[in-house]
Each structure stands twice: as C-alpha cells, then as structure tokens.
C-alpha cells in the first residue's frame, strides 16, 4: 500500500537515551517539508533489542512501501550492523565525525556505550546539577532571598516574562543557581531595587517582553482581566524597562524566544560559564 | 609555545543557540582521552560575528601551536566559509547528514537559520511546554493533589529518590505534566496508596534506589542523621518496593542514572509519547 509521500516514518535508535539522536534528527528534519512520524528506541544495546528494532523498521517499509529514515548512534558493531540491515535510509549521527576526529588528531577513540549523561564517574558534577535545580526551585518567584551569595544570577521581570521556565532550564541544563524575583504591579509607582540586591548588583539580569505579547500570554491565563489588559501590560513594561536602564541592569526581550534561546543569550551577555549537562 | 597535548581547545559555533553543537560535540569528545578547553559562540549569523570567531580560533592556534577542533552548524554560506577558513579541524554537525537525506529521498532541503527551538510558528506547542512546567511545579512533592485528571504520570518514591529533578526534566524536555508524591518515613508502618490515586492507578510509576546510594545522598544533605542512616534507608526502600510489588506499580531503580536516563526508561516502560522539545 502506498501512503501519502508527504509523511514518512522516522526512527531514532541508540544504545543510550537516544536524546542526542532526537536532537540532531529534529534539526535535520526542520529543513525538509515532509511530516515525520517519529518513533524512538533507546537502550538498544543487544542483538535481541536490535532484532526487535529491525522488525519494526521492516514493518514500516512493508506497510508504506517507502523506506523510513533511521538516525542512529550505536557503539557495538554487531548491534549496529543488525539495525543497518533493515530496509531504511540510515544516518550515523556520530560515527563519521568520530572517524574524522580520529584521522585529524591521530588519536584512537575509546568507544563506549553512550553514557555521557550517566552519573558514574562524574558523580560530583551530578550532585552540583541536582543542587542547582534545588537551589533554583527554592528561589523561584521571590519565595526567599536568603542565600543570594550562592546565586550565579538573579533574574528580574514582570509576571509572565518567562522567569520561571528560564531559571529551571538554566539550572537543569547548565547547572546554574538561579534566583528569580517578580517586579509586581502594585510596586510600580515606587519601583526600586530591594536593598537585599545591592551587594549582588553584578548578578542582576532583566527579562522584558513586548507589551502585546505579554497581554496575549496573560489573556491565555486570566482572560478579560485588568492584569492582562493592553494598558496594564504597557505600563508594567515601560516602568520595568525604565528601572533596568536607570540602574544599568542588562536585559533582554523574551517575546518570541524559547527558553533555550533566552538562556543562550543571557550566558552570552553575562559571560557565565556554559557547561551543558549532556 | 607548545602546550601539553593532553589539552586541546574546542569551539562550538552556531547561528542558533549552539546547543545541538555542544550536545553532539560532548558525545564525540567522550570517546577521546584529551581534556577539552571548550568555548561556545552562539548566534553567529553575520560575517562580522564570523570574523570575531575567526580571530579567536586563530589566536588559539597561534598560542598553542595546536589546531583546535571546531564543531559548527551554520546555514549562511558566507558565514560558514569564514569560520571554516580559520586554522582548525572543522566538523559540520549537520551538513553531511542533510546532504545525505536530500540525496536519499530526492527532496531539496529548505535551509533556514537554526531556529528549531524558537517560538514563532509553533506557538501552541510552546504554550503546552510552559504549561507542563507550571503544572509540574505546582504538583511537586505532593504540594497538591488537585487536577490529577490532567497528569500524564504520577511518580512515587521515598525522599531523595530523584522525583523532583526527573519531574522537571520530563516537563521541560518532553512537555509532560508530572505529579510527584513522596512516600514519607512516618507513613511506613501503615503504607498504602492514597484514595486520591485510585482512579489514576494507570498513571502511577515508582522510583526506587539502592539503600547504600540513598544513604550517601542523604548524608550529603543531613550528615549523621537518622534520616541518612543505613538502617532507615534500607527500611524505607524495602517497604516502598514491597508496596510497588503489592500494588503492581511499575518501578525503576534510579541509583546511578541521570535524569535523562531515568526519563528515557520511564517513557519506554509506560509508552508515553516522546516529543522532545528541541
């Protein structure tokens, strides 16, 4: 049976979590116009598991008459070969680059199962990561301002400017200890920096957002409220941006950015160390 | 000047967040024994930015006499070419695969700046993601058991078994709504499932952990406490695992697993849809 060629089955197969395969595959697929039907097989580290994957790929091909795409990352040769014998277009997301690095620097790789995200040998940095998530949770939305000495960065912004998701992403992916503090509507007339922040001025970073976008986001939460009104959003954004400028606090506009983009831009502006956990 | 060849400068250069470059680069480097000195250049989307990166790469080479490694992902040809003219070993993390997909499926790619993580056109799924993070935060550590209907999964486990970081990772990276509920020491004698969970039985999933590892993690937090003692940890783990078995709740052991691995294994066991946000 022929199926609409605008759709195509895509498989991610890895002997680890498959997250690297998915990450890379998504970026590759974003450049093509077909609609992918995706399926992920993590922890394929035996010929038994590989045989199951082989059957699934084969079934996809028999069902659609179209070869699926397979993005894979598998260290064990016998497992890899079994997956690659299935009727599909295969893409080794790492293999070619590892080979090229080996040739370029004349150093033999030491292939190991994809355990880059495992705790194992790097237990200390793993504890650091968990501690960063806990610190950030405890300092979300101004819950407490104790322990600011330990903060890597303090995010300021109006409600719904993206502080919480950005803070958690920075903690989870980069192991940073993030405080976030809301600049509240009622304070606007007398808006100023809290005295607690004075000695941590160098850690302050502002998030702002286009008033129209802010209104849209708040409407999504509290439709028809004053809180979501164009006027209120405009007032809050104007006031907060004036504060950022007056106090020389660096800031960025989050309007159409994802948490990954916001985080990347903050790290770039502040020079905070990027140490991605993966 | 020659520098210890056990170290080598590594650059990640992208016209987007560079997170894909870093992710792939880390996995590649994990297979080699040298120590990388890493630096990331995100948002390199103009020849001006490319010229800055060129200078940094050149300076690295002149300083060390060793060609650095450059993992890059850049769509604009003139930007890419400028980066690639620097004295380095270059690895295009996407280019070869995009070309190969094009050849295999006979479809021209539509190169675009690396905006796969941008909000833009896919605003709805972005709201879903933020909503998942907020739901998960609101349901962390048993804060509330309201709204369980909306939960994708309910994680159960003793204190320090990894529930909170796993929940937040599942929400942030896969857009899942996660409840986590602690099985508390004082409840152990009379441990049973809360009535609130009865109609959501199919969503329950247990996390457990080796008692020695649990004790180590708790010692790290409250050294010398009863809470961290080997005896207490053993008791809690035994009791909770007996509950999981008695109630036929699927569970995994988190002891030496990262949040990525725990998440991947849970998704595999439950069949929850994997839709990685990136």
TrEMBL record, chains A, B:
GO molecular function: ADP binding; ATP binding; phosphotransferase activity, phosphate group as acceptor; protein serine/threonine kinase activity
Pfam family, any one: Kinase-PPPase
Keywords: Kinase, Nucleotide-binding, Pyruvate, Serine/threonine-protein kinase, Transferase
Reactions it catalyzes: [pyruvate, water dikinase] + ADP = [pyruvate, water dikinase]-phosphate + AMP + H(+); [pyruvate, water dikinase]-phosphate + phosphate + H(+) = [pyruvate, water dikinase] + diphosphate
Highest taxon of source: Bacteria
Binding residue positions for ADP: 157-164
Leading EC class: transferase
Record InterPro entries: Kinase-pyrophosphorylase, PSRP
Keyword Transferase included in the entry's annotation: yes
Enzyme nomenclature, EC number: 2.7.11.33, 2.7.4.28
Function: Bifunctional serine/threonine kinase and phosphorylase involved in the regulation of the phosphoenolpyruvate synthase (PEPS) by catalyzing its phosphorylation/dephosphorylation.
Alphabetized NCBIfam families for the sequence: PRK05339.1 (NF003742)
Protein family membership: Belongs to the pyruvate, phosphate/water dikinase regulatory protein family. PSRP subfamily.
HAMAP family noted in UniProt: PSRP
Official protein name in the record: Putative phosphoenolpyruvate synthase regulatory protein
Organism lineage: Bacteria, Pseudomonadati, Pseudomonadota, Gammaproteobacteria, Vibrionales
């Amino acid at each position: 049976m022929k199926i609409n060629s605008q759709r195509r089955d895509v498989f991610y197969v890895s002997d680890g979590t498959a997250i690297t395969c998915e990450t890379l595959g998504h970026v590759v697929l974003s450049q093509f116009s077909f609609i992918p039907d995706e399926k992920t097989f993590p922890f394929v580290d035996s010929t038994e598991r590989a045989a199951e994957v082989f059957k699934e790929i084969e079934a996809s091909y028999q069902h659609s008459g179209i070869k699926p795409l397979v993005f894979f990352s598998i260290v064990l040769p016998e497992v890899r070969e079994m997956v690659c014998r299935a009727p599909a277009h295969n893409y080794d997301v790492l293999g070619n680059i590892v080979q090229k690095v080996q040739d370029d620097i004349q150093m033999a790789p030491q292939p190991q199962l994809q355990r880059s995200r495992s705790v194992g040998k790097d237990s200390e940095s793993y504890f650091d990561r968990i501690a960063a998530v806990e610190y950030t949770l405890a300092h979300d939305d101004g819950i407490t301002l104790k322990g600011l000495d330990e903060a890597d960065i303090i995010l300021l912004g109006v409600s719904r400017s993206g502080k919480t998701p950005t803070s958690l992403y920075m903690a989870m992916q980069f192991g940073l200890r993030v405080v976030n503090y809301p600049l509240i509507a009622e304070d606007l007339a007398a808006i100023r920096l809290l005295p607690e922040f004075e000695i941590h001025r160098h850690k302050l970073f502002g998030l702002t957002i286009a008033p129209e976008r802010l209104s849209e986001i708040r409407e999504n939460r509290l439709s028809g409220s004053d809180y979501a009104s164009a006027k209120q959003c405009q007032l809050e954004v104007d006031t907060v941006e004036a504060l950022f400028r007056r106090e020389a606090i660096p800031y960025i506009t989050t309007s159409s950015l994802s948490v990954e983009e916001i985080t990347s831009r903050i790290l770039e502006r502040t020079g905070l160390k990027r140490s991605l956990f993966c």
